[in-house]
Write a structure and sequence with these properties.
Layout lengths: L3 H9 L4 H4 L10 E8 L4 E5 L2 E3 L17 E4 L6 E4 L5 E5 L6 E6 L3 E7 L6 H14 L2 E7 L7 H9 L7 E3 L7 H5 L8 E5 L6 H9 L3 H7 L2 E4 L5 E4 L3 E3 L5 E3 L13 H7 L1 H6 L17 H7 L5 H17 L18
Parallel strand pairs: 8-9, 8-11, 9-10, 11-15
Antiparallel strand pairs: 1-2, 1-4, 2-3, 4-5, 6-7, 12-13, 14-15
The chain binds guanosine-5'-triphosphate and zinc ion (ZN).
Length: about 350
């Protein structure tokens, strides 16, 4: 087992008990590494001292790795030994196939970025929230371009209503104080990622997070290394250190992700509807026309937004359509019509 000073340094990299508990006694001497980028035939890793090395077996499928993963390697040969189980994993559905592509692993907080303008779209934000819930990451809504509107509070109120206890941060991504507003989620050892449409300010925020100091530039900038043929290559790292001590994962794939097989995430997002359902008179109530429906009663009473119920239905239907039958969502039965 690594000594406590070493463990303290590993924690700066995002290491936690969830990973330490996975180490077998005979693995105590192995090199602990974090994946900083994934390429077609190799992975880049870092350790507490910066860029490190790992050698994958020939023909390893690097699609099984994600930026943010923890891996173990032999300290002598640098040979890859194994990948540790993930705390959280963000995946994206690949277009035209049923496969899922890994976007990032072990992300603690997902910043869902949108602007105080026409980009603000509750239905799309709900999709991102579902994805974060499903992945096990903590979602935070970041409302950018607050400096361009008079009524930022209107957007903030709408964002807060999307999910219970949802943190919402309103800022100008170009202003230096943006960092202090998102700092609570970016402390030492914390890993964050950003999603959102083009132009909402994700790059601006990543730059703000990385800071502008020489050391930060060096840490987050491009890294030079030898490729398989011994040539020097320059590659962009996807795991950037944050000025406050945390890490931001910024891979090309992560910025736009899709909804699929996310039943649990949907249940969390629409918790107030899920909690009302058992109060309906009929156990298999579809919440459309049945007498004694607690969901319809909440809409009539003004405590539940009818549009939200519709979006819940739409997302469940979409999820059912996109999810392979073998792992079908348990929520399907809600849609099975029954004659009374
Ligand atoms: N006024 C103002 N401008 C902003 C703010 N955030 C971003 N911008 C500007 O909006 C433009 C787009 O910002 P980016 O950071 O490139 O957006 P992005 O989300 O990274 O976009 P993609 O790289 O296309 O995904 C830039 O000109 C930014 O300077 C903000 O909070 N206020
Ligand atoms: Zn009902």
């Amino acid at each position: 087992m690594t000594d406590s000073a070493e463990t303290g340094r590993l924690r700066q990299l995002g290491w936690s008990d969830v990973f330490a508990e996975q180490l077998a006694p005979d693995e105590s001497d192995l090199h602990i590494l974090r994946v900083s980028s994934v390429h077609r035939s190799r992975i880049d890793v870092i350790d507490v001292d910066g860029a490190a090395d790992v050698v994958l077996a020939p023909n390893t499928n690097t699609a099984d790795f994600a930026v943010g993963d923890w891996v173990l390697a032999s300290p002598f040969t640098r040979d890859f030994v194994r990948r540790l189980d993930r705390k959280t994993v963000l995946q994206r559905r690949t277009e035209g196939s049923h496969g899922q592509q890994l976007a990032a692993a072990n992300v603690d907080t997902l910043f869902i970025v949108t602007s105080c303008n026409a980009d603000f779209n509750p239905a799309r934000l709900e999709r991102y929230l579902i994805m974060a819930n499903q992945a096990g990451t903590r979602p935070v809504i970041v409302l950018t371009k607050a400096d361009t509107v008079e009524d930022a509070e209107t957007y903030e109120t709408q964002a807060r209503a999307l999910q219970r206890d949802l943190p919402v941060v309103v800022l100008n991504a170009r202003s230096p104080d943006a960092l202090s507003k998102i700092a609570p989620w970016c402390g030492p050892g914390e890993t964050v990622a950003l999603v959102g449409s083009s132009g909402v300010g994700k790059s601006t925020l990543v730059n703000t997070l990385a800071g502008s100091g020489a050391e930060a530039q060096q840490k987050t900038g491009e890294i030079r290394q030898h490729d398989a043929k011994g040539r020097h290559t320059t590659t962009a790292r996807s795991l950037h250190s944050i000025a406050g001590g945390g890490w931001v994962i910024d891979t090309p794939g992560i910025r736009t992700l899709y909804v699929s097989d996310v039943t649990d995430g949907i249940d969390t997002l629409f918790a107030e509807i899920i909690e009302l359902a058992p109060l309906c008179r009929f156990r298999d109530c579809t919440h459309q026309h049945e007498p004694g429906c607690a969901v319809q009663a909440a809409i009539a009473g003004g405590t539940l937004d009818a549009a939200r119920l519709e979006r819940w239905r739409g997302l469940l239907a979409e999820n059912r359509e996109k999810t392979p039958v073998s792992s079908g969502p348990k929520g399907n039965k809600i849609f099975r019509k029954k004659k009374y």
